[in-house]
């Protein structure tokens, strides 16, 4: 999970410098329902680690709006990505291993798909589909072999899980079809290289 949080932070800071509380808010917005998988208790330690290795920089800037009258002037730390951090972000985006197929890993990578090359997007989508198909088959086996030993509520929960898997497989298949034909989920043709012009070789 630390790598996924690292990816999310670097991706957000590549969009613009942010205060820590802004990062928390943007993580919640960007990651949606999977944000619960990221502990905000690890956010600031991760920011400190990224700063130590040189992937982000930090500067304290005064903020007039949050300084009450007759109190000492204190600033808030603004974090920004460094050139080395941009390289690390690109490296993380290019990963398409098993960790990108799990729920949290897939969610974080998917949130930055617009900045990921098409081949990597396709590998991640196909890996995720295999993972969910395996989960679906496991649930089918439970329902076929043990349904008579499950109480009504446990049985309903298994059916709900199976239904969710089947819906996700259909969604992934649609995304994969779009990727192979060069279309985005909205049906538009995405740019071949999502990186800004200045970052391209």
TrEMBL record:
InterPro entries: Metal_resp_DNA-bind_regulator, Tscrpt_reg_PadR_N, WH-like_DNA-bd_sf, WH_DNA-bd_sf. It comes from the Bacteria. Residues 9-91 form the Transcription regulator PadR N-terminal domain. Residues 122-156 form a coiled coil. The keyword Transferase does not apply. Residues 176-201 are annotated as: Disordered. Keywords: Coiled coil. Residues 192-201 have a biased composition (Basic and acidic residues). This is Negative transcription regulator padR. It comes from Actinoplanes friuliensis DSM 7358.
